[in-house]
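During the second year of the project, the team shifted from modelling isolated chains to modelling whole assemblies. The rationale, set out in the original proposal, was that interfaces cannot be judged from single-chain predictions alone. As a representative example for this report, we include one of the complexes processed in the last quarter. Its constituent sequences, exactly as entered into the pipeline, are reproduced here:
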Amino acid sequence: MDSIGDSIYALAVKLFPICRSITGDGFRETLRIISDELPGLTTHDVPSGTPVFDWVAPREWNIRDAYVLDPHGKKIIDFAESNLHVVGYSTPVNKKIPLSELQEHFYSLPDQPDAIPYITSYYKERWGFCLTENQRKTITEDGEYTVVIDSDLKDGHLTYGELLIPGERKEEIFFSTYICHPSMANNELSGPTVTTFLVKWLLSQKRKYSYRIIFIPETIGSLTYLSLHLDEMQRRIIAGYNVTCVGDDRCYSFLPSRKEDSLADHVALHVLKHLHPDFVRYTYLDRGSDERQYCAPGIDLPVASVMRSKYGAYPEYHTSLDNLELITPSGLQGTYEVLQKCIECIEADERLKVTVLGEPQLGKRGLYPTLSTKQTAAQVRDMMNLIAYCDGTRTLFEIAEKINVPMWDLVPIVKKLKEQNLLESID
Amino acid sequence: MDSIGDSIYALAVKLFPICRSITGDGFRETLRIISDELPGLTTHDVPSGTPVFDWVAPREWNIRDAYVLDPHGKKIIDFAESNLHVVGYSTPVNKKIPLSELQEHFYSLPDQPDAIPYITSYYKERWGFCLTENQRKTITEDGEYTVVIDSDLKDGHLTYGELLIPGERKEEIFFSTYICHPSMANNELSGPTVTTFLVKWLLSQKRKYSYRIIFIPETIGSLTYLSLHLDEMQRRIIAGYNVTCVGDDRCYSFLPSRKEDSLADHVALHVLKHLHPDFVRYTYLDRGSDERQYCAPGIDLPVASVMRSKYGAYPEYHTSLDNLELITPSGLQGTYEVLQKCIECIEADERLKVTVLGEPQLGKRGLYPTLSTKQTAAQVRDMMNLIAYCDGTRTLFEIAEKINVPMWDLVPIVKKLKEQNLLESID
Amino acid sequence: MDSIGDSIYALAVKLFPICRSITGDGFRETLRIISDELPGLTTHDVPSGTPVFDWVAPREWNIRDAYVLDPHGKKIIDFAESNLHVVGYSTPVNKKIPLSELQEHFYSLPDQPDAIPYITSYYKERWGFCLTENQRKTITEDGEYTVVIDSDLKDGHLTYGELLIPGERKEEIFFSTYICHPSMANNELSGPTVTTFLVKWLLSQKRKYSYRIIFIPETIGSLTYLSLHLDEMQRRIIAGYNVTCVGDDRCYSFLPSRKEDSLADHVALHVLKHLHPDFVRYTYLDRGSDERQYCAPGIDLPVASVMRSKYGAYPEYHTSLDNLELITPSGLQGTYEVLQKCIECIEADERLKVTVLGEPQLGKRGLYPTLSTKQTAAQVRDMMNLIAYCDGTRTLFEIAEKINVPMWDLVPIVKKLKEQNLLESID
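Output from the structure prediction step:
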């Protein structure tokens, strides 16, 4: 039987070939495939030109084909082979130019000669081709080269997907992930695929909190979504995670919210400390994704990131080497499970108070060995430590931190003590 | 001339043979001998069955004799040789049983073959014999063994001793110690004997604070005492110490109150830091004595522990090896002196304010060398540092911590500066 | 062309020979020479005997000549050669005494046989001669020695210099330096000379804050000045520095104000951390100059010290070896520049708030590269980090600390962002 990691990986494989950008048909096609997994997902279109805080929703970009022919008419660069070959948002072009002029439109990475770089130009009109440094070195023949980019950039829509899942309370836990990069795996598809399967699991759970999940283009998408929902988000969201770069197997990492002390931050650190204590801990100065918007001054949402190899921190980042070999079923599943534990901790957290003065007599309730020996003290240590700190000022999460045990080890003990009327919730 | 340590040790020797338990004649006999040293000590009886928070005062247990005869009628285990041989609170028994059945009532320690373990069963009715693993191995002969425990377990009283010593103020410093273990030395007799001599010294002192000292059975005794005096204790006690395991020579140790930041905690740490800087520092998670009740949620008294080798942290703990060879006069005296210094610090602490603006001119008051050289600056450093921080916001104790000198070095300087009207108390 | 350090050094050379004390003609002559550089400097006289908090303004001491003649009439000690030869505030004397009696008036340093010690006796009447240990060993001949000190100690004045420089605001930045030591260089002349040139620079600047600069005798001068201006100083001074020991080349050092957390403290630490990260960090317990008065309880001014080799912490301190060879133009200039940066930081500090929600679009304002590549992210990092923390709760200085860049690197970015209306001051 397939593991959950295998299922997540399979979805990434299906989405990989699509040429996504911050707008356009590739974005919508990706959303449609995800909708097959999450029928409740709704699609929203915001017209190009709509003001979005300091920005405007961009024109929509679509591309059908692109290639370069050498002076002999041979196709030496072909968009059909890799959608990374074209600079994102390239304007249409169809002409013959000499090599020297063509070179000005070439982008390659001398330090990574086997990698096609991922380059975009959303806010200035240009066109260009990306290729490996090794290939570029072979293009030396003088003569007229034919460059064709069959794209268009015109008014249309910025699209995003949204899923609202109700819980017992109106307070929300928020997940944001982006689907605006073409064929790249860790920095792109790991995020939406892990999020998709996390939501599938969530839908099967009893939920104290409501959930807000969005699939957006990075930056302009979070700005757009915020501009439409800021008030509601500020009132409701108690914890959020930006899900990106969650697919490889090399490490776990954490990047805090701007204020660094939200529930989202504390819980993620707790889970990582207990499950993967060698995780890499970044600061907000290392940020680089949508937390830049969610945590901006005046917005101030409690959004942190649990990642594997972080954007910008692994050599394949933003190149064709960030491919399906870089991510793994186990890598995807590992982050899926960490985020699951984060949700479980937030869901289970509550302020607790012991109902009796002094230590309760556990023996008469069958909670304590009746014969006192040197060994028995240690056996009930966790239960007694929990009780010792249930003073009505601390939440279960804070107690788990204080007594340095995983919160999920305490949840069944809380259940047992509540059944004995020894603990009460006081929220 | 005998040291104070010798006197404390002598009292421990006198109390050692008595068979104490959480109730009964051994407890009362111990209290009577301590009363000889502390005539003001009063004895209080609480009837069995009295509700005590989540518990009830237990029935009273007394034992007169106990032994095992082998199939030849030879006495192979004898309570008269060691009161540890009988499981505490054993129900009466008098019958012949085969070895196989007897074995189910034997308790020994395979890892410590020379030690008789200390076992109790206060809250479930059982009987049993404790013996060394080495002796147990010699009892192999089949046949009928005679087991006799001449005990009774019936309604009676839980007893405790209390001594209230008035001071200038109603605020109290609290000492609690227990006398419920049979013949064991560090974990039992070191506590009440050091406390007894500390109180004798206290009675000879001028006291700003009042003192509350109790001699109780552990756990059920502190619960019982709290249930009778909680209000008063919460209103009055500003610092307290549980006195246990204060008799050996191997180390000093400290275990904080639950909130970790009471005056009792800070002062004990200050004294240990300056007198015995290599002391072992435990956390509240390592607790195991009556601080579990005094610091429980809703009770929240500021009770910490200064110890030598802590209960559970030395190999002889709760066995016959915790005997009079384990504790020493110097070991007992060392903790006596640490607790004395704690009391002196608390008694001398007060908020102080310098009476002049700018540094006072010490020269004209004979407090400062009149000739200024490179050397003289250092000589008055402590006095000047004290003055520099007497700003009315800090107490003397806080200043001692800030300038990192033992508080007792500052007490005579404060006296001198008050005589010169340079400092005033502002409490 | 001379560096600023050369100019500061030249002033120190000019002031070096003058025999200063806490009162008297040498003090006034020093003030007069500084007035040549700072025409706005005003001179103030406080009569001897004026009460000054716990002290009184001392009598004025002047000395014209002093020497010792050996039994042959040969001048073996001569004030004209070094004004350190006479104990400061020596009473007049003119008599013949035997060597044994003369020895009681000799001061030398056995551990530093080549150094004449600097000794004073302000508050007890004495007379004495200071000499090197090596010279003292040569004075062995019995016979009558002639001792002459042509001094007088009588009612007069305690003098100080004051310069008030207005700024846009009434809040003040305070500099205090002392001119009461005879011919010594690091512990004395480095302070007033660096301060003089700092003020000359300040006078040429646009100033948000007003400035209060005083040239005083140490201790009694700061007490006197405080006793006359305390109210005003407490109301106005937001940051202050005591300028002393700022002339050698061996290290930088920092000594905090008593409360350790004033703007003066934080800014000095920031500047030193970025410019001279290996600086020596002292605590207030290491204090020894006028911060003892400025930070005394009830006075509580935010006065810290940025120094080179600190008083008491270098071997030449308070001896004839603290001479013009110990200080250097580069040593003086280094501290001058650190204090300049402190002033610039305080002047530029303000609370800032970004004017848009979400990250601003820097591209449309020409503040951001239009082509997104792996490299461009790092280039705008400082600007983005600044914007990320301009949330109206933090000042520019606090942001510089948070994002760990020198505040002076952010000042031009703030200017640019304000021009684009992306940042606003909210004080």
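The first strand of chain B starts at residue 42 and ends at 47. DSSP finds 13 helices and 19 strands in chain B.
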